[in-house]
Amino acid sequence: MTVRLWRPSPSERSEDNPKLSVVGSNVAAMHLKMITIDCAEPRDLATFWTAALGTEIASDYEGHFVMLAPWDPSGVALGLQKVPEELAGKNRVHIDLHTEDRMAEVDRLVGLGAAIVDEQKVPGLSWTVLADPAGNVFCVAGEEH
């Protein structure tokens, strides 16, 4: 599976497209390093996510925090952090993954332990909402041909 995180390149940022413009000088001082998922058992969930993303564990802090190696040229990593409380309802932020063969990837992820939650479609784009083994929702999208 190829996973891509999109961020505008300098050539895509312009005054003509303010949504892609970088405003203020403090923006360059930060970058997205990691997306962290709260969970009860980071090591258990790492088994699913390393297989799903085709990566490996980069750091394991005694099972309290597990960081996966970046799987994409953007360098963004996935972290799994142990928390005492259970997931209550739908997570407010989720991961969107993109692939050329959405249905094949969905089948593969279900085989790894994900569950299909929903299917969505808008003109030109379809996505499947899944839940990882801990119930965290994420999406797999692909263009419609």
Give a nutshell description of this structure.
The chain has 145 residues and is α/β, with parallel strands linked by helices.
Question: Could you walk me through the main structural features you see in this protein, from its secondary elements to its overall organization?
Answer:
Residues 34-140 form the Glyoxalase-like domain. It comes from Kibdelosporangium aridum. This is Glyoxalase-like domain-containing protein. It holds the Pfam family Glyoxalase_6. The longest helix is centred in the N-terminal third of the chain and has 12 residues, at 42-53. With 145 residues, this protein is of the alpha/beta class. The chain folds into two domains: 30-86, Signal recognition particle alu RNA binding heterodimer, srp9/1 (2-Layer Sandwich), CATH 3.30.720.120; 93-145, 2,3-Dihydroxybiphenyl 1,2-Dioxygenase, domain 1, CATH 3.10.180. The protein is globular, with a radius of gyration of 17 Å. The chain has a four-stranded mixed sheet, with helices on one face. Strands 5-8-7-6 form a four-stranded mixed sheet, with helices on one face. The chain has helices at residues 42-53, 102-112, and strands at 34-39, 57-61, 65-68, 77-82, 95-98, 115-122, 125-131, 137-143. A hairpin with a 2-residue loop joins strand 6 (115-122) and strand 7.
